[in-house]
Specification:
2 domains, 5-stranded parallel beta sheet, NAD binding, D-isomer_DH_CS, alpha/beta, NAD(P)-bd_dom_sf, Rossmann fold, 7-stranded parallel beta sheet
Length: 318
Amino acid sequence: MKHKLVCVRRLPPNVAARVRSEFDAVLDDARDPTLPEALALMAEHKADALLFSSGFRLTAETIAALPPSVKVAATASVGFDHVDLAAARARGLVVTNTPEVLTGCTADMAFTLLLAAARRLGENERLMRNDAWVPRGMGDGLGVRVWGKTLGIVGMGRIGRAMARRARGFDMNVIYTDLTRIAGEEALFVPTLAEMLPLCDFLTLHVPLTPQTTNMIDAAALALLPPRAVVVNASRGGVVDEAALMAALASGKVFAAGLDVFATEPRFDARWIDVPNAILTPHTASGTIETRDAMGFRALDNIAAVLAGQPAIDPLWS
């Protein structure tokens, strides 16, 4: 007998093939079910497990509405701010995530945003597509140099450390702030964000969204940055006060920004569309074939382990 699984997110072909091979699965390749539809599917199918991602919020109310047959819920993401862990623990629902497998591609994307923002790639690409390339003076349309500059990293976890390695390859000076010093890290530790910000030509954010990190990059923080600083966020949109960042970009206090995440995604603040010195991408840092397959497979490995009576590989509570 195959275990019963409901997937509430469309999956890459390789992951979907494994789901259908190993599970008695409910999976729609055309559309994601709504929350009421997902709950109805789990009840009707008497599901043992749920596979979801950050687009599906596992709130206390949703957890309470899950059929009792559901033993494990696996999110195909490293972040888990969309999960009410206290409610999951109270119900005895095992919840897992997918750390490690998306580290490299997320760091690649963050560094891509850094380079694109520094060299004004968005503005220059639009200039070409609009057939608006005309002779320019030597002082027109200039970006800022990357090599030799100082990169400040907020959050020196797996992705922060991967970002530091990429920055060193570009001959950048790397500094970071975190709750504690990271043993063996070849970067300068700065105890507080306020102390680090004035040193940052580039600032990149790699922290989860918590009450402590919400809007941590606000107007006061941005004011501490040196002239022509570049801000990159590929973590969670709520870490940045978006109105304050827009104002800093408009005034020239911040030279440019590269953003892959937004506070109200996917319906992001439409004012961003008219900010020329912001590079915008739709939360796609993990968006490679290899990484999305790895995320899906890791989620399935967690589900299979729990349903086989073994400990979860990546439990979010224990």
